[in-house]
Amino acid sequence: MALLDFILAYFILKNVTKLTYPKLDVLSIVLSTIGFGGILYGSSIAGSRGWGDLEVLATLAIGAAALAVFIYRQLHLDQPILEFRVFRYPIFTLTTVIGMLCFSVFIAGATMLPIYMQTMLGFSPLKSGLMLLPGAIVMGVMSPITGRILIESARADSRSPVYRFCC
């Protein structure tokens, strides 16, 4: 099925942006891989070894240092891999942080609620999944609507960093 999707996408979908063929920045790719990988690995092994373990602290420190160098490099490149300059706009930074917090709360609830329903209330996995289904349906229906509202409100103020970032 995925192969059919790739074939259909190749022939049917059209590129809507201008191709620029930017230069591949290998150092940025290596730095981001070490940075994100170090933080992910350090966080993963902290559960079994504890946050005070030397390997946990070392991988987290190496990951954080690599990410700091990566961000510094991206801020000084003409064509960065990841555009961090949008965080200079306070409203963009604020809404991004709020979005991350809301998503974290959502994921925590979506993880803890089924565990609570199964262990404390005795629900089967099927019943606990069905209890979460209405919320998932509402999110699926509302996501494109809220996206359109965001884009339209950003277009109303073309100075908005959201407009510059999305459009």
Automatic annotation (TrEMBL):
Membrane topology (UniProt): Multi-pass membrane protein
Cellular location(s)? Membrane
Mind telling me which GO cellular component terms the entry cites? membrane
Transmembrane segments annotated in the record for this chain: 24-42, 54-72, 92-117, 129-151
Matching InterPro entries: MFS_trans_sf
Tell me where it mainly resides.
membrane
**What's the protein name?**
Multidrug and toxin extrusion family efflux pump YdhE
Q: Which organism is it from?
A: Sporolactobacillus inulinus
User: Taxonomic classification, please?
Assistant: Bacteria, Bacillati, Bacillota, Bacilli, Bacillales
